[in-house]
Amino acid sequence: MNRQELVNLIREKQSYLCVGLDTDIHKIPKHLLSHPDPIFAFNKAIIDATRDLCVAYKINTAFYECMGIRGWESLQRTVDYIPSGIFTIADAKRGDIGNTATQYAKTFFETYRFDAVTVAPYMGKDSVEPFLAFSEKWAIVLGLTSNEGSKDFQMQRVGEGYLYEKVLKTTMEWGTPDNLMFVIGATQTAQLGEIRKLVPHHFFLVPGVGAQGGSLKDISAVAMNADCGLLVNASRAVIYAGNGEDFAQDARRAAQEYQQEMAAYLAEKLAVKQ
Ligand SMILES: O=C(O)c1cc(=O)[nH]c(=O)n1[C@@H]1O[C@H](COP(=O)(O)O)[C@@H](O)[C@H]1O
């Protein structure tokens, strides 16, 4: 999916919600366990219940890889099931020498046909560039992450600024707002305004609302740009909103709350017709 299509999707759906399919076999409702592929059965129900409310799904590959071959099959079925026209993210946080990075890019862009992959930039330009070489595909590079450990390296001073600022400035030169996004954690509200000034045009994937306590209101107020420029991810707060027979309806209610809040912020900020 290209940038214009993503921007149009956000305007049409009045939503910049990304539903995170961090599907944990130990957390899904028990009645699904008799299904031949319980992970897919869960995801299918969540997708059916939320597809009109979100613009993206993020599949965190860790939850699938830990199940071995069965997990990869669940992942494949899930990606194939996501309706075309919805942005798909493989949250794999890959990064390796160029020769290997190319294989990772092929895995997620060609074999599994995702629109985007999360990429760890620590190994530098040759580890990120292979993800930028595919038409209408995206690298989503870790900028400032939502977790406590972001202080350990990302928030360390390097010269005039923080290390994460150096990462943002340097990485921006490798790609364009048409093939590069940044992960900026929803819990980093104190830094968000400055980050948006530094990176005015790129989309941000913003995880950390819901279970990690980030505020959708604060993020939207400081980080939205003229194209919206945000994909706000919620995983546990949506997919585990309920745990009974009607878990999908509970997920829908949670997603709807986010979407309605987003529609209000879009209207306020961008004067988009509702
Ligand atoms: O790249 C990510 O998606 C990511 C980056 C980050 O800084 N923080 C973060 O939580 N994530 C991911 O976003 C999701 C957050 O899940 P919830 O806290 O359940 O909404 C998980 O899949 C995390 O792996």
UniProtKB/TrEMBL annotation:
GO terms for molecular function: orotidine-5'-phosphate decarboxylase activity. It is an enzyme of class 4 (lyase). Pfam families: OMPdecase (PF00215). Pathway: Pyrimidine metabolism; UMP biosynthesis via de novo pathway; UMP from orotate: step 2/2. Residues 16-251 form the Orotidine 5'-phosphate decarboxylase domain. Belongs to the OMP decarboxylase family. Type 2 subfamily. This is Orotidine-5'-phosphate decarboxylase. It comes from Chitinophaga defluvii.
